[in-house]
Specification:
mainly alpha; flat; 88 residues; 4 helices
């Protein structure tokens, strides 16, 4: 008698990376507003600069690896990285 083998996870996840990253960005909005309120609008400038460098850096690295940058940028991980760097 032969048994069927299944690899973990047994239930396919229904969460997508892009949706999770957007939820993280949404969760950071109140913190960003509080940051601007307490420390001034310089945070917005830092966020814009960090976003530009993170997106450009990821696109550059994907092109260097011979892959399509649009696929890598579609999961919004570069934007989450930029937001966290701007907060730091």
């Amino acid at each position: 008698m032969e048994f069927a083998r299944k690899e973990a996870p047994f239930i396919a996840p229904n969460a997508k990376v892009s949706r999770m990253m957007l939820q993280v960005l949404l969760a950071l909005v109140p913190a960003a507003l509080a940051h601007v309120w307490y420390f001034g609008p310089g945070f917005i400038f830092n966020l814009l600069i960090a976003t530009g460098f993170c997106v450009a850096g990821e696109a550059l690295m994907m092109r260097a690896r011979g892959r399509d940058p649009a696929i890598a940028l579609a999961d919004y991980s570069a934007l989450v990285t930029a937001a966290l760097l701007a907060f730091a």
